[in-house]
Amino acid sequence: MRETPAAAAPAGPPPSRCDKHRTDPDPGPCRACGDARKAREAYDRDQADAASRAQSEKARDQAAARRVAIDNCQLCDASGYRDGRLCAHDPTVIDRSRRGAAAAAAAIRRPGAADLTWSNPA
Ligand SMILES: [Zn+2]
Ligand SMILES: [Zn+2]
């Protein structure tokens, strides 16, 4: 159950002109208009900040969800790829090359000199 309180959401951007010059395209020097414009600019900045904050939070959430999906998925490697393709993390979709993907995943998880050691028995 989730209700959005109406008071929490601002009605919209404040006017960038004072009440007197609301519809005047060229009000000339007006202190109230200047204040209104500054308030509007601050509002726009806040909106942009909030938007980019929300954006990065969303990106972080998505990255975390992706990480969990990859960790829980037996099909793909640590990057979420399976046979060079982005994995859907859907265990019901098991293709023929699963073994190859598992081998590739194992190789990626152990990036190291294992192969070099084996190929260099000196
Ligand atoms: Zn004005
Ligand atoms: Zn997967």
Short description:
By secondary structure, this protein is mainly alpha-helical. Helices cover 49% and strands 3% of the residues. Among the domains are: 28-69; 73-110, no CATH class.
Largest beta sheet: what is the strand line-up? Answer: 1-2
Report the order of strands and helices: HEEHH
Low-confidence stretches: none
Number of helices: 3
Roughly what fraction of the amino acids lie in strands? under 5%
Q: What separation lies between the terminal Cα atoms?
A: 68 Å
Oligomer: single chain
Secondary structure class reads mainly alpha
Give every kind of bound small molecule, once each.
zinc ion
Number of strands: 2
Which of globular, elongated, flat, extended, rod-shaped describes the shape?
rod-shaped
Level of helix content?
Answer: 40-55%
Mean pLDDT across all residues, rounded?
A: 82
Radius of gyration from CA coordinates:
28 Å
Task: Give the biggest beta sheet.
Answer: 2 strands, antiparallel
Task: Please name the defining characteristics of this protein.
3 helices, mainly alpha, 122 residues, binds zinc ion, 49% helix
